[in-house]
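Deviation from plan, reported transparently: pyridoxal-5'-phosphate complex.
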Amino acid sequence: MKTEALARASVRALTPYQSARRLGGKGDVWLNANEYPCAVEFTLTQQTLNRYPECQPTALIERYAAYAGVKPGQVVVSRGADEGIELFIRAFCEPGQDAVLYCPPTYGMYSVSAETTGVECRTAPTLSDWQLDLAAIEQRLDGVKVVFVCSPNNPTGQLINPDALRALLVMTRDRAIVVIDEAYIEFCPQATLAGWLNDYPHLAILRTLSKAFALAGLRCGFTLANEEVINLLLKVIAPYPLSTPVADIAAQALSPAGIEAMRARVAETIENRRLLVDGLKAINDVEQVFTSETNYVLARFVDSGRLFKSLWDRGIILRDQSKQTSLSGCLRITVGTRAECLRVLDALRDQEGQ
Ligand SMILES: *Cc1c(COP(=O)(O)O)cnc(C)c1O
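Because the crystal trials were delayed, the predicted structure below was used instead.
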């Protein structure tokens, strides 16, 4: 018997998440993972590595709650927002029985997490403007325990209409948890649903330090929800989800100076985004540039496959989204430094008419 045959059937059948890192490439301009382009420096202040860390470090939870405008009892910290996704599936979905629902095109980890846990994935593709198809969601809600909505949405970049989110919350009350993935909310902070938590016991919000806080390598994310939901997540979380250095650095990132530095990075990113969007609009091979509220831009190209490959060969690594539902011809470009934005535009201009 081959060892592989011992694995669960669902795992044998699984296509792992194609993270930007796994896809490889020999680039020197990395614009495929929506990271901040420059490293921020930190020093470790805790010298207590002989001890196990706190499961939910009090100082860190208090800082994030203050930053997000919620109570400390409404926050869980985890190994990235990705672990938050998995906690919801493990706390709310019985394998082989319950389902999760999401609305493609969207972030890939909702399906990967559900599939590895043996939980059914149900989809309600978005309308042609990438807004929610509420009628389709309602039709498919039987047996669904968790609905994932990403806003602003990755990879399309736009916010989900708040009226539709309200309607979704009304539709799902007492039926399913609605998890709003706000990984990019720092780029449009006025749009957060954190202020809605008191109105909806089944609302939860995912956050991360990986994007605007420039800490993708740290692996630190947060879930905001009401205490009843938080207590369920804390039942299934690992006993020590964050190492001591992670908690230490995350707390520094959430100090007043850390938050101020984050806001400066956001302002700079938005300025570079404008440069990138304006440049893209002037290029012939670009059919459409979509409005972005984030640190990336989605655009549709005349021959995206050829352009993706030719930029790849020049060391500029973008994210090909053309295989996703309704995204044919689309590439996603992370907003890098000003110099990186200019390099992408130069490379695309060089290709014009070829
Ligand atoms: C990057 C990203 C995440 C993952 O965040 P981590 O904290 O790095 O795990 C979750 N959701 C969306 C939409 C993302 O783009």
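The mean pLDDT is 95. We consider this an acceptable substitute for the interim report.
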